[in-house]
Structure formats: C-alpha cells, structure tokens
C-alpha cells in the first residue's frame, strides 16, 4: 500500500458518522486523510486515555485491545465500500479475518494511521480488504478482513 503524503482532512468525524453506523463508544475512526472510493482509504484513530476500554485493559499498563485495532481497520474498510455506486443498501458485517498479526503495542497517546485497500468484491455482497495500522511509521497490526452484506 502506498504511504499517504497529505495531512488534509478528506472526511471529518461528522461525515464519517453519516457513512458508518457505529456510534460511541464504538466509532473508532476520527478522520479520513485519503480516500479513493471503491479502491482505498487512509484514516486516523487517536488513542486517548479517557476511552472506556482502558479502565480494565489494563489499569496499570493500558494497551489498546487487539480486537479494537482490528475493528478500527474494518471501519476504514467499510468507508471504501460505502461510497461505491450501485451497491445494494444494507449493512456490511465481518465475515472473516485472515492473517492478522500484532507487531507492537498501541497505547494512549498513540495515533493509529490505518490504510485499507479493496482486494475483491464479489456479487456486490462479499468483499475483502488488505489492512494495516501503523504508529509513527511502525507496523502495529496487519491482515485481511472479509465482509458480507446483511439485507
């Protein structure tokens, strides 16, 4: 995947809320900095200490749970397909996760840069994205995420 060279906001948090169904505390994309509908997206997730998961994961050494990193990547993947013309209306949900690996801890104060690229879309109902999340240029998580349309 190519590195984004822009820090301009392409989609604000308000615009993202108009495209994705997720709401607090599960809205995990703060802004989109690059977006090619139907092809790829790059977004930012600012990790802050006042997020609810850090009360229990772990109070003495807060770490962002891996499942939330994967969910943030999936939400960025969802932004790719929400802007595609000719897709049926409905909700895209997880259908599978392949090859996900965690390479470094993500902690409060980090900024996740999440890049997703659409690998395939079959029958306008089943899709696969390649996703990676980095912090300060270091790979934190990567994998392939599958989704399907729920009528």
Description:
With 151 residues, this protein is α+β, with helices and mostly antiparallel strands. The chain has a single domain, classed as Roll (Thiol Ester Dehydrase, Chain A). The protein has two helices and six strands, in the order αββαββββ. Strands 1-2-4-5-6-3 form a six-stranded antiparallel sheet, covered by helices on one side. Strand 4 and strand 5 form a beta hairpin. The longest helix is centred in the middle third of the chain and has 17 residues. The chain starts with 12 loop residues before the first helix and ends with a strand.
Tell me the layout of helices and strands:
Blueprint: H1 13-19, E1 31-36, E2 40-46, H2 66-82, E3 91-102, E4 111-122, E5 126-135, E6 138-150
Antiparallel strand pairs: 1-2, 2-4, 3-6, 4-5, 5-6
Task: Give a nutshell description of this structure.
This protein is of the alpha+beta class and 151 residues long. 16% of the residues lie in helices and 40% in strands. The chain contains 2 helices and 6 strands; from the N terminus they run H-E-E-H-E-E-E-E.
Tertiary shape: globular
Terminus-to-terminus distance = 31 Å
Tally of distinct domains: 1
Mean pLDDT across the residues is 92
Content-based structural category: alpha+beta
CATH topology: Thiol Ester Dehydrase, Chain A
The number of strands is 6
The unreliable regions are 2-6
Estimated radius of gyration: 15 Å
Give the strand content. Answer: 35-45%
CATH class: Alpha Beta
| CATH homology superfamily name | Hotdog Thioesterase
Strand order of the largest sheet: 1-2-4-5-6-3
Number of helices: 2
The percent range for helix content is 10-25%
CATH architecture: Roll
* Largest sheet properties: 6 strands, antiparallel
EC number: 4.2.1.59
Subcellular location: Cytoplasm
Enzyme class: lyase
Active site: 57
């Amino acid at each position: 995947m190519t590195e984004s060279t822009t820090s301009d906001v392409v989609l604000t948090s308000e615009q993202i809320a108009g495209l994705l169904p997720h709401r607090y505390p599960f809205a995990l994309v703060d802004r989109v900095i690059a977006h090619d509908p139907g092809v790829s997206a790059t977004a930012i997730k600012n990790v802050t200490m006042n997020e609810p998961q850090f009360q229990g994961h772990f109070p003495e050494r807060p770490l962002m749970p891996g499942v939330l990193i994967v969910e943030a990547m999936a939400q960025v993947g969802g932004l790719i397909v929400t802007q595609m013309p000719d897709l049926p209306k409905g909700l895209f949900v997880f259908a599978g996760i392949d090859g996900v690996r965690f390479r470094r801890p993500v902690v409060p104060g980090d900024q996740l840069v999440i890049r997703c690229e659409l690998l395939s879309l079959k029958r306008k109902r089943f899709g696969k994205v390649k996703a990676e999340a980095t912090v300060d240029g270091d790979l934190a998580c990567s994998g392939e995420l599958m989704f399907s349309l729920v009528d």
